[in-house]
Design goal:
heterodimer, A: 731 residues, alpha/beta, Dimethylsulfoxide Reductase, domain 2, seven-stranded mixed β-sheet, six-stranded mixed β-sheet, 27% helix, B: 289 residues, alpha+beta, Alpha-Beta Plaits, four-stranded mixed β-sheet, two-stranded antiparallel sheet
């Protein structure tokens, strides 16, 4: 796209010579002194480079899987800032903090710059030719069944190339592993609606009842849902939407609720059944299934007052349509599928299917559809590694050594594979175990296409294009690497594609009719596609099937455990998510919204429980499960069930980089291997723990004052009841 | 100027900046923040770091209170939470409030600066002149909102604040501040400046929506609106008018009505007479649940 890139310091050096000249350099960090760059006057500036003026290019955000479109500001060959692309139906010009930090991923000082081959404890830089030859050599010694490929969620043309590469040696072992994916909810949706991920119309609902779905923070497509939420609050016909959040640990969404209801961990399904019972509108099978869930029983098991259940039922009955969501808090148990089924059943009973839950459009190219997966895939990989079935392991866009539950002993099992290749941006915990590390381009240097899993309005394919020249000469795009590896095996089939860009362009141009390009000239179609950054498609919409699922619905009541009396709730921090971005300093310094803590982990304990255990803020406590123990600072937090404690995910890195290593503790390490009985996904909230003081104390580093989060005297953050305000008068 | 004149006409002198006698013309930048849609997600704050070359100070300096976030999300629980008679649980959620420089019309920070480094611009901004600032920090001490941030260190030369590659992300339109100067939210003055220039070249005024500040542009719930308060067509002007909040009042007429109004616009610490340029809309809570 641009053939010049230079940094500010070089610019000043050149200006110092007294001429209006620009330093053109192939790859960033060279300088005039070492003779690696030439001096050329600005009159020969590259296209679209206007000194002092920012130029904007569309691309796609790769910080999470939501598929937001971005608009990058480029000045003098450097990308400076990312904004949302207003044309995207998903984010409509908006971004989250994580997306904003995308530039810090690109400019990160701890990126891997050379292919590294293990030599004892060290990595030795080798050339790409050597790396490719080594892979070919290792693959020639093993059969297809002895190779495993683990990747994060992939879609678009990259997924096509990945599948083609694996099938070129008859390997069927592609494990898609996203540590925080809603695996159980997808399966429950498939049963209830016929699709894994329908469209949720929060903006059309008058009441949203969310069972631990943090849709404003980290759930599925938070920027999209945030926009829907804003409309929902403004309301339809002056009727402001009401949000009720039911969960054991307050999430960001819970903090925004009109009514936050805390319940005993794991009893979400029982409460959903209790609400169906209280509604009293169900008939037949459903009525029979909920018959046992009367107010007294439900209230006793969930800890939610009977009056509260009646109020929720009354409001759902009165204000229709509503929307009921099952989030990660509901699915994280051994009976997670049962919880999610019961919650979806509530949607069915309320008649929300087809109104606030609609079918999403799908892209008419099934081979490009996103590959999704959760911990069940990792478990099967881990079992294979433990049994010594896999000799060669590839890893891309996942960090299983960091995110696998401690009880899986993934690191030890990974060592059983003879040759481990990790495609990496940073030397993370998994790359540290590799035999060969191949450095990747950042998302702002690479080409690609994305098909988002959650589709907003119609279907769309997102285009990712480089926003600047590569910072480091020896990194490669994942597409380029796969193409080079494919050429080793099927040279004839791929000989026409010099690089991934050529492949991508050819693949898109060939299908331009189906991609809405009509009869446009190839170049015109391609240029327009890059300019827009999005291809919008009508897509295929299959109507949802609304099926009540009552057969086999069994909701166990919580058990007491004297040895490990507390439930561990690993929470998802809005900025750090599964921990892959913890080396971006803006995110480390962005306070957690509910505690305002920065640069560390903490354990949330209810003040009542803390008083019982004589724990106060800043005590270093040890949290012990059957699997292991970690230490971190205590924080007294009223938004948590007294029988639970919560530790955020994403910190506790032993590698990754200077802004991540050594900060906090990793709750994955003490997670037991308990799985959802139906889907085999990890039951993330099922680990039981005990807590003890170590005697050490620290001052908690946080943004709120020592007085805590209370307003004293003056009105700072105002609030008003719906009775006292008229929203129809507003602009 | 005699002392008598000064004392007799104090309100006039005190009102050096607002408005009724000498209105800002043609621009008066102002903001509205809707606390009912603000979700407290912090996107605005990160966007501000990206736009304004704000240094990341690290854990140790953060612990010393030296963080530089020009916009921060304040977080509050209900007053009676955990108290006698109140609930033990935050049953009505939390409250979030984005806090940044309120660009006061009679800014308490301005009057105490010994060198005039902070003063008012013609379009109603509270400006900070970095190379005039001597670092007395009086302004910060006098700011009721605590939104002024002091450079205790020379961040450009501090390890790991902007390592080599990261310097390339710095916005060339914004100064990188050195040790010993005060800084704060500027309402993205570099963006305002650019768009005012464009408008002037075309012989017109800046249109509503033509410029967005960085926090507003990122905000996933569109909780922040920004614009020219003088322009009757601007969203901000309409919002302030609908909420009956007047810039040059220290007590709004609507608040004197018995029983209150059904409006939710207010300004923070208005009665201290700083005449802030940011109006907040109260968070709403459903009474039926």
């Amino acid at each position: 796209m641009m053939d010049s890139g230079f940094d500010r310091r070089d610019f000043l050096k050149v200006m110092g010579w007294g001429g209006a000249a620009v330093a053109l350099s192939g790859c960033g960090n060279t300088s005039i002194e070492d003779g690696k760059e030439t001096v050329a006057p600005y009159v020969e500036a590259a296209d679209y480079v206007i000194p002092g003026i920012g130029v904007y290019y569309n691309s796609s955000c790769a910080q999470c899987d939501a598929g937001c479109s971005i608009n990058g500001r480029v000045r003098e060959g450097r990308v400076l800032k990312l904004e949302g692309n207003p044309a995207s139906a998903i984010n409509r010009g908006r971004t989250c903090g994580l997306g904003q930090a995308g530039v810090q991923h690109h400019y990160n000082p701890d990126r891997v710059r050379e292919p590294l081959l293990r030599n004892g404890d060290k990595g030795e830089a080798i050339s790409w030719d050597q790396a490719y030859a080594l892979i070919a050599d290792k693959l020639s010694e093993v059969s297809g069944e002895e190779i495993a490929f683990v990747s994060g969620g992939v879609s678009g043309h990259l997924k096509v190339l990945m599948e083609n590469y694996l099938s070129s040696f008859g390997c069927k072992n592609h494990f898609v592993y996203e540590a925080l994916a809603p695996g159980v909810v997808r399966a429950a949706n498939k049963k209830a609606y016929g699709v894994e991920m329908p469209r949720y119309n929060i903006d059309k609902a008058k009441v949203v009842l969310s069972f631990g779905a943090d849709f404003l923070g980290s759930w599925v497509s938070p920027v999209h849902f945030s926009q829907q939420y804003a409309k929902f609050r403004k309301g339809v016909d002056g009727q402001r939407g009401t949000l009720i959040q039911v969960e054991s640990k307050m999430t960001l969404t819970g903090a925004n609720a009109d009514r936050w209801v805390h319940l005993r961990p794991g009893t979400e399904g029982i409460l959903a059944m209790g609400i169906i019972n209280a509604l009293g509108t169900a008939k037949g099978d459903i009525a029979a299934a909920v018959a046992g869930y009367d107010r007294a029983f439900v209230s006793k098991e969930t800890g939610v007052p009977a009056g509260q259940i009646d109020k929720i039922a009354a409001m759902l009955k009165l204000r229709s349509p509503s929307l009921v969501l099952a989030g990660s808090a509901a699915e994280g148990y051994a009976h997670g599928s049962q919880n999610a089924d019961a919650i979806n059943l509530l949607n069915y009973v309320l008649g929300n299917v087809g109104k606030t839950i609609e079918a999403a459009a799908t892209v008419p190219f099934p081979q490009m559809a996103p590959a999704t997966g959760n911990t069940a895939a990792l478990k099967s990989l881990n079992d294979g590694l433990a049994a010594g079935r896999y000799k060669v392991l590839f890893n891309y866009a996942a960090n299983p050594v960091f995110t696998a539950p401690g009880a899986m002993s993934f690191k030890e099992n990974m060592a059983k594979a003879d040759f481990k290749v990790v495609f990496a941006h940073y030397i993370d915990e998994t790359a540290l175990q590799a035999d060969l590390v191949l450095p990747l381009d950042s998302a702002l240097e690479d080409w690609g296409t994305q098909v988002p899993e959650y589709m907003a309005d119609g279907a769309q394919i997102n285009i990712q294009q480089p926003l600047m020249e590569k910072l480091h000469a020896n990194t490669r795009g994942m597409g380029d690497i796969l193409l080079a590896l494919l050429k080793q095996r099927q040279a004839e089939d791929y000989k026409n594609y010099e690089d991934y860009y050529a492949y991508l362009r050819a693949a898109m141009v060939q299908n331009k009719a189906a991609l809405g390009g009509g009869s446009a000239d190839d170049d015109a179609f391609w240029n327009e596609t890059l300019t827009d950054g999005i291809i919008k498609l009508e897509g295929k919409v299959t109507a949802l099937s609304a099926k009540p699922n009552v057969v086999g619905l069994k909701l166990p009541t919580p058990m007491e455990n004297d040895e490990f009396p507390l439930q561990l709730i690993p929470s998802v921090n809005i900025s750090l998510r599964d921990g892959r971005h913890s080396n971006q300093p803006w995110l480390q310094e962005s306070p957690d919204p509910l505690t305002t803590i920065v640069w560390d982990s903490w354990v949330e304990i209810h003040p009542k429980k803390a008083a019982e255990l004589h724990i106060s803020e800043g005590d270093i406590v040890e949290i012990t499960s059957k699997t292991g123990s970690i230490k971190t600072q205590a924080y007294l937090f009223p938004g948590i069930h007294p029988e639970a404690i919560s530790i955020p995910i994403g910190q506790g890195h032993e590698a990754l980089g200077r802004y991540a290593k050594g900060y906090g503790a990793n709750p994955f390490h003490i997670m037991d291997a308990i799985f959802d009985e139906e889907t085999g996904e990890l039951a993330m909230h099922e680990t039981r723990v005990k807590i003890s003081k170590t005697g050490q104390r620290v001052i908690v580093v946080k943004d709120e004052s020592s007085a805590g989060a209370k307003q004293i005297r003056e009105k700072i953050a105002g609030r008003v009841s719906t009775d006292d305000v008229d929203l129809t008068k507003e602009v | 100027m005699s002392v008598n004149n000064l004392l007799e006409n104090w309100s006039q002198f005190r009102h050096a900046h607002p408005v009724d006698d000498k209105p800002h013309d043609p621009y008066k930048w102002a903001m509205t923040i809707d606390l009912d849609t603000c979700s407290g997600c912090n996107a605005c704050s990160v966007a501000c770091y990206a736009e304004n070359n704000i240094p990341v100070v690290g854990k140790e300096k953060y612990a010393h209170g030296q963080v530089m976030h020009w916009i921060r999300i304040e977080h509050y629980w209900d007053e009676d939470l955990g108290e006698e008679g109140g609930s033990e649980f935050p049953e009505q959620g939390a409250q979030f409030l984005p806090m940044m420089c309120q660009q006061c019309e009679a800014a308490p920070c301005e009057t105490v600066c010994p060198v005039g480094a902070t003063n008012h611009t013609a379009d109603g901004l509270n400006s900070q002149v970095y190379n005039r600032c001597i670092g007395s920090r009086y302004c910060s001490a006098n700011c009721p909102y605590k939104v002024r941030y002091f450079n205790w260190y020379d961040y450009p030369t501090t390890d790991d604040v902007w390592p080599a590659e990261m310097t390339q992300q710095l916005n060339p339109d914004v100064t990188v501040r050195g040790k010993g100067v005060m800084e704060k939210c500027t309402f993205c003055i570099q963006r305002l400046h650019a768009v005012k220039g464009t408008a002037k070249n075309e012989g017109r005024l800046v249109r509503d929506g033509e410029v967005q500040v960085a926090c507003q542009e990122a905000c996933p719930t569109d909780a922040i609106s920004f614009g020219n308060l003088i322009d009757p067509e601007s969203r901000v002007h309409k919002q302030w008018k609908a909420q009956q909040v007047e810039l040059d009042k220290d007590k709004q007429l609507k608040d004197e009505k018995e029983g209150g109004t059904d409006l939710r616009g207010y300004r923070i610490l208005e009665n201290m007479r700083p005449y802030p340029s940011v109006m907040y809309l109260e968070r709403v809570r459903e009474s039926a649940i």
